[in-house]
Amino acid sequence: MSTKNIPARIEALRNYMREKGLAAFIVLSSDAHSSEYVADCWKAREWISGFDGSAGTAVVTLDDARLWTDSRYWLAAENSLADTGFTLMKDGDVSTPSITDWLCATLEQGGVVSVDGTVCSIAEAKQWAAALSTSGLSLDASHEPFEQIWQGRPSVPADKAVIMPCEVAGESVACKLQRLRESLANDAADGMLVTMLDEVAWLTNLRGNDVAYNPVVVSYMLVTATDATLFILPEKLTPEVSAHLADAGIATAAYGDVWQALASYAGNSILLQPTRCNRAVLEYLNPACQPIFKDSPVAAMKAVKNATEIDGFKQAMLAEGVAMVKLLHWLQPAVERGGITELDVDRQLTAFRSEDSRFTGLSFATIAAYGPNAAIVHYEPTEECNAPLQPRGLLLLDCGGQYTCGTTDITRTIPLGPLSEEERRSYTLVLRGHISLAMAKFPLGTCGTQLDVLARQWLWQEGENYLHGTGHGVGHFLNVHEGPHQIRMNNMPAPLLPGVTVTNEPGLYKAGRYGIRIENTMLVKEHCETEFGTFCAMEPLTLCPIDTTAIIPSLLGDDAIAYLNEYHKQVYEMLAPHLSGEHLEFLKDSCKPI
After folding, report:
1. Same domain, 167 and 95
2. What is the distance between the alpha carbons of residues 506 and 495, in angstroms, rounded to a whole number?
3. What share of the chain is helix, strand, coil (3-state, %, to 5)?
4. Co-location of 416 and 292 in the same domain
5. 0.90 exceeded by pTM
6. Is residue 402 part of a domain?
7. What mean pLDDT do residues 183-198 have?
8. How far, rounded to the nearest angstrom, does the alpha carbon of residue 201 sit from its chain's CA centroid?
9. Does residue 154 belong to any structural domain of this protein?
10. Are residues 462 and 429 in the same domain?
């Protein structure tokens, strides 16, 4: 994005602020639905600052402008913000104050700070207001200045919605709505506003192309005990989609009509998820209606996959495994010939995936990180930062695809040539943690936090650790990051129930040297019944060889070696019928027991 207009944009916002009596405006990176990825029409932070990183918050006062972003983007943001009027604030640096601390120290008592309530969650707005009040400042979430000052603002996406057939979804819309209504009745809620796009997609068995990487449709859904309304741009509805919704008892209304519907809502109570529902909902909601602030029941329903969805995952993982084997076969000879970069890996893998007609695109931006770049968690190569691959060291490849039958997420750390003893040791310890978690047996009701140490234990014994979570849920041809369950150190109480998908991805990162992560997507299933109750286990859905040349066998242990050999036996048996020639020979060699 050109930065030549940024000072004028800042001034336009300041003129709005003067007109409304505002001392500061906080510009978030979110959309009206608390999405991980947002459509162009909600990229106000990018528009006002010129910085296009995925994470960051801009703050504009009447005489200053700052942008907070984390360490992944410090260098890129420094370059993007040059000559814009914005100053970079290195979020996470001990010397950098929080946004609210900076505002409290900068503004005079009595000042009003504003944020667009349509893109700020109820919980977030409450936190902002509480922090600001300590210095006599107040928060006003009623302003949407970008509707007025953003000339040429993109429209809400208008691509057509498509139907996910019941034979792929595994459950009818009517059945899902009935289950939701039963849950709402248990919570004494007369209705619910469904705001998360993946939850609307799951409830309606619709998919779309409105948001990068996530096959969702921009919409809201209001569900009561007797009816349901989908608020969506009319041009997104085909006759087939309209009939599909009508058959399920779902009325449709224009996307913007949701506000009037809330104002005239006749129920006594409505369930809202405060961490996901935007603050503007409270501004419009009928004052006679009592909000019930609670986690969305749809998330837990969606997380437990039915038999048809599980079969779809397995089909997607099979297609992904075939593409990955072709990529791995291609990679090392290509690197040895020279001229291959991180982005080339992404392009080649996409080409292999595209050989399957069910492939629709990536499930997130590919992380192909070589050498020191892999030590930067969630590093993404760009045309400006695109390291050439050398026939030595490690390549970390974290990638995923969207297939009409399921969603994939896989990470492999790949030796490109000779490794140091330290690299081999680190690789083995990460793999041992991955296998220890994969082998876990646990009582029904166990949450991911209780299992997280299994993946970290071997690193902890060496005084090492990684700071990201160990696992997250994966949607069924939906968002690659799905809750409510997670595997991580901090408390995540949602249990790992039979039928949920969850990743297993421990890692280790040595700044300036290398990064390692090994990830499979797993399916939780019942393991056995004993006098102590039901016990669960995890089955790997991902089908792709894990490199064995980097392993120090004496560090891995006999039980882990046995598990890895059995996993590779399954990978070979599943993928071999779909490969031939050199690809089949490569698979056979990669899956041979150690």
Report:
1. no
2. 20
3. 40, 25, 40
4. no
5. yes
6. yes
7. 97
8. 16
9. no
10. yes
